[in-house]
Amino acid sequence: MTRISECIAPPFRPVHAAVREGAYTHFWLPGGRGSGKSSFVGIELPLCLMRDAQAGRRTHAVALRRFGVTLRESVFAQLQWGIERLGAAEFWSASLSPLALTYLPTGQKILFRGADDPVKLKSLKVDGGYIAYAWYEEVSEFEGEEKIRSINQSVMRGGERFALFYTFNPPRRRGAWCNRLVAEGREGTLVTRTDYRDMPPQWLGQPFLLEARRLERARPELYQHEYLGLATGTGGEVFPNLTLRPIPDEEIAGFDRICRGLDWGYAADPLAYNQCHYDARRRRLYLYRELHSTGLTNRRCAQLLRPWVGPRDRIVCDSAEPKSIAELRAHGLRAVGARKGPGSVEYGIQWLQDLEEIVIDPARCPHSAREFTGYELERDGAGEFTGGFPQKDDHHIDAVRYACEGLMLPPALDILR
Q1: Are both 356 and 399 inside the same structural domain?
Q2: Is 371 an annotated catalytic residue?
Q3: Which of 37, 88, 329, 376 is 20–30 Å from 237 (CA)?
Q4: Domain limit, last residue, from 161, 191, 207
């Protein structure tokens, strides 16, 4: 067999070591064209099975695509290439119906499934052992995180140690579910971003490099998306000043200009509460706490907010429900109604747009992160962006507008707060 160091590109060697040590369960590998991510998994997956066989562990793997018809020309071919690259072709056999790769010394298998056939996914079975490894190729094509979670529940059974790989070219839209997820920094997850510049040039070839440079000169934004794997945006993002990152407790301890807002909801629409800090000198807004729930009574809402809100702390609420505001006040919270009028929504959103930066902790405020990143201008019938702001999926955006209402007032009107 070929030496492993000759097969795995330098940026993926730490990932390879982490897989071997069992340091993480989920390995997210976003990258642009020529970044080597699929080539790495094409080598790592059969290598894992062969290494486990040497250690007496009977493990199997599954490679997944959104649509089953794409399996043979993508992951199946890539894994065959990986086995060849390892110099291990004589130890593996391939079958086309059903698609499978079998490690001959032990019978361990790499199975292939499309997510468009839920019956086959739920009936995943192996002969002895368990499925320890899964590869989601072009995971951005899958319907969303819930779909991935559902598949993982079917795959991750009967074992104690798993490694799941997710490879994709990040969608242009910053609010795409997979872009948001890799920004969160979840426990048990390793994110490794790569692009073609991280790869040995001789692996890519001169024609590839020349084409990349040509596109960089001709269409820089397209180059950044296709070759560097950057979420460059669609051009319709309402909040291009958004940053998703963890906000640690030590940083929160220094927050001294706190504002709080609440948008009512109960059945179909959620109640949305946000707690923010405004850094006036840097014109930076931090979102570090949220409450998001349906079916929440006002009494229960007050109970949940009380640990975060002191008796003198003001909560600016949607003024459309004066009865609910009165109930919160009856439960000891200083709830007040927001001033609303013609143009108030547009003015509030434009004020947020004009900030130097809006920082959201996606782990503490996942629903806020989803709304702000996914909020785009309305489109017309031809799919072109218009100048209008959508009035949907904006519950936390509304709550933040209410929270910051006093900050938006000109100084002469400050007495109205």
Answers
A1: yes
A2: no
A3: 37
A4: 207
